[in-house]
Design goal:
- With 367 residues, the protein is of the alpha+beta class.
- It has three domains: 7-125, no CATH class; 133-208, Translation Initiation Factor IF3 (2-Layer Sandwich), CATH 3.30.110; 213-349, C8orf32 fold (Roll), CATH 3.10.620.
- It is built from twelve helices and 17 strands.
- The chain has helices at residues 7-17, 49-61, 79-92, 95-100, 127-131, 139-152, 169-179, 213-233, 240-252, 265-272, 277-290, 323-329, and strands at 19-22, 25-28, 38-40, 45-46, 66-71, 101-111, 114-123, 134-136, 156-161, 189-195, 201-208, 258-259, 274-275, 295-302, 305-314, 317-321, 343-345.
- Strand 15 (305-314) and strand 16 (317-321) form a beta hairpin.
- Helix 6 (139-152) crosses helix 7 (169-179) and helix 8 (213-233) packs across helix 10.
- The longest helix is centred in the middle third of the chain and has 21 residues, at 213-233.
Length: 367
């Protein structure tokens, strides 16, 4: 509905709604005495729909609740419809708006004889939460953000992605935890919501831990010296086979292990001697990588039961290493595919372990 405001009436309504007139600028005031975001008046003038959307995005990105936008040379017959469409776009398509905005109310009137739009915005998320949205230009950067959140044991991560793609964040969490057992003490459950439409989206992830943040951080500080000692244990010159075997001995001789699954795998394994095949394989792989040795984690089955082991690359040849299988025989063992009786895994996902060396990727290139 279009309403004609007298200049005094506009000033009074702005004061009542939480905006004050000060040196030509509008200042938004929010509860709890939060510092408001100041948007200069000259930045709040629009002459077409694209500018209107751009200004409203800026307003929402700063968490401003009340403000006035001056309209210059705008087709009056379409102004109200344009504002309504811009409101819908901000709430449905603009990622930060879809994430943060509860409702946008507007009135069209006059400000000092010029047409103006008065906005009143309510939010479901605070200005601090909006400001803490992390930027991620692509999905690889998003994965790094997830890793940082896992290492900090954050319970919430909100990201604005410039080039959005569908991603299984539960798998991302699992993969990162397997690759970084020294930094991720507990693998949390994770849920996520996506906001906005198009290439740019906001993704909100929530992590659920069974262990307190302080306890997990304490565990992290307690296991790190063990990983550091493992690197020192195999430092210096030596054959790769010797180093792989030494790391096997360093890990397997720490305890008379009890085979159980724990929600804090690396900590339970290295501090209490409790772990399953996955804990052994992930910790061993991390120790190998820290020592400059190539080692990957393989998930599959052994005798029909879920099982995890490693594949190492020694002097250009790939080998399977099952730490618990080696422990049963009392010595470090590396075997080829043909010797993996009773084991099943995705053969296409891992390199072949046979008597052929790793192919040189540079072979055949012109020199």
């Amino acid at each position: 509905m279009k309403i004609q405001f007298l200049a005094l009436a506009v000033c009074v309504s702005l004061l009542l709604s939480g905006c004050s007139w000060l040196d030509g600028s509008y200042v938004s005031v929010t509860p709890h005495h939060e510092q408001s975001a100041n948007i200069r008046t000259e930045n709040l003038s629009v002459s077409n729909y694209e500018e209107l959307v751009e200004v409203m995005e800026e307003i929402v990105s700063k968490g401003t609740e009340n403000c006035v936008i001056n309209v210059v040379n705008y087709e009056q017959d379409y102004l109200e419809l344009s504002v309504a469409n811009a409101v819908q776009r901000i709430q449905k398509i603009y990622p930060i708006g879809a994430y943060a905005v509860e409702n946008i109310g507007f009135e069209i009137g006059s400000n000092n004889g010029r047409t103006a739009i008065a906005l009143e915005i309510t939010y479901r998320h605070s200005r601090v939460e909006i400001r803490n949205i992390q930027k991620a230009k692509d999905m690889e950067r998003a994965k790094k953000r997830v890793g940082q959140a896992l290492e900090s044991y954050d319970t919430v991560l909100v990201m604005e992605l410039d080039a959005y793609e569908e991603l299984d964040y539960a798998q991302v969490v699992q993969d990162y935890a397997m690759e970084n057992p020294q930094n991720v003490m507990e693998i949390p459950q994770v849920t996520w919501e996506t906001y906005g439409m198009g290439d740019s989206r906001v993704v909100e992830l929530t992590f659920y831990y069974q262990t307190s943040r302080d306890a997990l951080r304490t565990m992290q500080t307690q296991v790190q010296p063990v990983f550091d000692s493992a690197v020192l244990y195999v430092s210096g010159e030596g054959a790769q086979h010797q180093k792989y075997a030494q790391l096997y001995g360093f890990l397997m001789e720490r305890f008379d292990y009890k085979l159980e699954t724990s929600i804090t795998p690396a900590y339970s394994l290295l501090r209490h001697g409790v772990g399953d095949s996955r804990a052994f394989a992930t910790v061993y792989a991390a120790m190998c990588r820290d020592a400059g040795l190539e080692c990957m984690v393989v998930t599959g089955t052994r005798s029909g039961e879920p099982w995890t082991w490693n594949i190492i690359c020694e002097d250009g040849f790939y080998w399977h290493v099952d730490l618990l299988g080696s422990s049963a025989t009392g010595r470090f063992q590396k075997v080829l595919d043909a010797d993996m009786e009773g084991y099943v895994w995705d053969y296409s996902a891992y390199p072949q372990c046979n008597d052929a060396p790793v192919e040189d990727e540079t072979a055949g290139e012109e020199k």
